[in-house]
Amino acid sequence: MFNESDDCSCLSPRTANTKRLTETLKDLVRMDTRSGSEGISKALLYLESQCRQFGLECSLQGPQQFNNLIVSLKSSGVRRDGLILLSHLDTAGWDEKNWDYHPLSAAQTSSGLIHGRGTIDCKSLVAIWLSICVDLLFSKENLKRDIYFVVTSDEETGGEKGIKWLLDHTDIFDHCRAALNEGGGAVFSLPGDHKLITCQHGEKGGAEVSVGGVEHKKEFIVKRSGLRSKFKYAKARYEFERMNRLFGQQTIRPDYINALFDTAIVKDRKLVISFHHKSNPTELLKEISKQQNLALEGNMRRTFEATVSPLDSELFKIIKSVSAESGFGKLLPIVTRGISDSRFLRGRGIDTYGFLPLGSREDLRSIHSLNECIHRDSLREAYLILKQIVMKYCLFG
Description:
2 domains; 32% helix; 5-stranded antiparallel β-sheet; Aminopeptidase; globular; 397 residues
């Protein structure tokens, strides 16, 4: 299934220079790119060197030196619907105590697991996009759509100096209409040997307000009036819990229950609400105050808007068909309560989908936690699937 040859001139999705893919990931993991660290500049210069070695057109741009890398593959036509391949180098922090392998070791076990901070979030996607761009360049095929591979360096701290800065201060993405990023790709087993794979097509918005009289309260669903919405929530809760009892922790996580609904939590005398794009935050606060008997103080502070991309776009349909052809089963579109820099692209009308199909080998709970790791075969399979998606959209679309 996999070709370890150094020849990357073949465009077939069933062949790839997977040795280069794996080594690129390991090189990046060995660099300390925790948010704000000097290692980010080193990693960006490393990637720039790799791009120039292969002949890819690239540049470093940002409010400060070495903030973001932009790689361009131009089409032969004049279409104005380019594709952005987005990823980021900065990682969450870590304390090496209690890790099985050092977070910067990139150690690979005999079973094929590659250990280290950023192996999933999000250096694996950086390595995948780079490999795809190199393959497309070497193929000599005429692209029908421009491709922009973008590596940012501050996603974990808000994205203001990354994709948002590029959108505000450059015209690079003026003719882009779609993007692929992190945020989906978790696979769940269902009864009858069926599978679901998630694709993030939106992110919830967030707001907060001071609350009086309560120090701490567990998260709760914001109930809606009317039988239909209550039944929908009860049915979802039942189905998700039933699957977890039958199949264990590798099925639907509780996070995906809450992804269906507006939620809220009281933390440090602040009420933090998470809402969908069709929800009115002001009305939500009134409902919460009434239902939970909370005394809300002061004006609402809006932190970020909810964003969503359509489920009938050309790119989404391609993701859906390729995931089914690859044996992952039905695509499950989700709106996550966690945010990424995808929200900036959606805010500019660019259809953006989070999809990193890693299969069921990885424990996604290791992201931002102990012992983050990725299986070598998962990395390769994700590469092959994403390559097919990019090819179908940019070569045949």
